[in-house]
Amino acid sequence: MKKLRDLAFLREPMTAEAKGLDSVDPALAELSTMADKEQFDDLATRVESLFDAGVNDVRAITYYLWLEWRRSGVSALTEIFTTLTALVSVNLESLGPVDKRDTHFAKRLAWLSLKIGDGIQYHESKRTADWRAWASGVSPEQIDAAIKALGGLDAALPPTFLPARQALTALAPRLHGLAEAFARPVDDPPVSEPGDGHASGEGAAPAVAAATEGGRMVVRSGRAEVGVSPAYFELVQKLAAFQKLVDKKEMVKAAVVADDIMRSVDNFDPRTYFPDMFADFSEKFSDNIEALSSFWGQRDSTAWKAMVQFYRVDLRRFVGG
User: Which of 59, 211, 258, 270 has a 20 to 30 A CA-CA distance from 217?
Assistant: First the structure.
């Protein structure tokens, strides 16, 4: 991927009048198509041409920050977050589009956060070359700086940026887990057992099986094969260690392990442990975040509450299948 411009120009105070793209501007479709096809160099060149034309549209900017994430990975997170902080605070009024700027920016920031979180999960679960480079080249201090920068961004978000705040909240646990994940040998396989990276058989957690009888969905107890991440097996090892320490009456050590396990439970994110289960959801959610989040403002309406009740009572009929 081509070298991108230093992001400092987005953090410096902007004095130009806000100039964005119209909703029917073909440039927006071009950016989306290039991103979907992962035409990174073409996308970078197109966004830079907009910058040169004085167009500081939040949709183009978030694509550019995504490109920096794809190019540099974890080492770029602090700069990305501090750049976003400057954009939502110092430079917000200089960004386009002027019409519904906060709405567009919040949705695009949520999209970017999801892309970063899913990227971290993917590279860790696959032990990719990028993951190995991060593990050997990113220090704990850099991770701490990224976590601090993420907190600064969250604190700077205007109240209207609710979708973005929700996405940042989901991203935070991934950053907190990086230091420990990098500390593990990079040559370790993504999972320790079974060899294909699935939890199954007698050691698997109880799951559910669904069938349709008489037009109604019936759920029975059962077992399922579920793709899991290294974090799953690490948690299993901690649970086993706790039991062993209690049996040995080594209560101080057991207390340390129990405290760590409870922190994991209190901050439980199923995507961290069962990434394959959420892969399709994450992809479709990320690709459709703007359309989906446009309806969240209706949560307090009677129509929304009625649909939620229908959804909880009969999922099959709610879906229509």
Answer: 270
Residue closest to 199 by CA, chosen among 226, 238, 229, 230: 226
Read off the amino acid at residue 206: P
| Single-letter residue type at 131 | W
CB 250 within 8 A of CB 207: no
Dihedral over Cα of 233, 238, 241, 247: its sign: negative
Identify which of 121, 173, 169, 165 has the alpha carbon closest to the alpha carbon of residue 293.
165
CB 97 within 8 A of CB 21: yes
- Return the half-sphere exposure (C-beta side, CA atoms, 13 A cut-off) of residue 78: 12
* Nearest residue to 42 (alpha-carbon basis) of 54, 33, 51, 55: 33
- C-alpha–C-alpha distance, residues 306 and 269, integer Å: 28
The CA distance from 290 to 93, in Å, is 21
Q: pTM of the full predicted structure?
A: 0.64
Pairing of strands 216-223, 198-199: unpaired
DSSP 17-76: PP----TT-HHHHHHHHHHHTT-HHHHHHHHHHHHHTT--BHHHHHHHHHHHHHHHGGGG
Digits of tens for pLDDT over the chain (321 positions)?
Answer: 889 999 999 999 998 888 888 888 899 899 999 998 999 999 999 999 999 999 999 999 999 999 999 999 999 999 999 999 999 999 999 999 999 999 999 999 999 999 999 899 889 888 889 999 999 999 999 999 999 999 999 999 998 898 888 888 888 888 988 888 888 776 655 443 333 333 433 333 334 444 444 444 444 444 555 666 777 778 888 888 888 888 889 899 889 989 888 988 888 888 877 877 787 888 888 888 888 888 888 889 998 888 888 888 888 888 885
CB within 8 Å of 123: residues ≥ 6 apart? 73, 130, 131, 134
Token pair 């703007």 is at which residue? Answer: 290
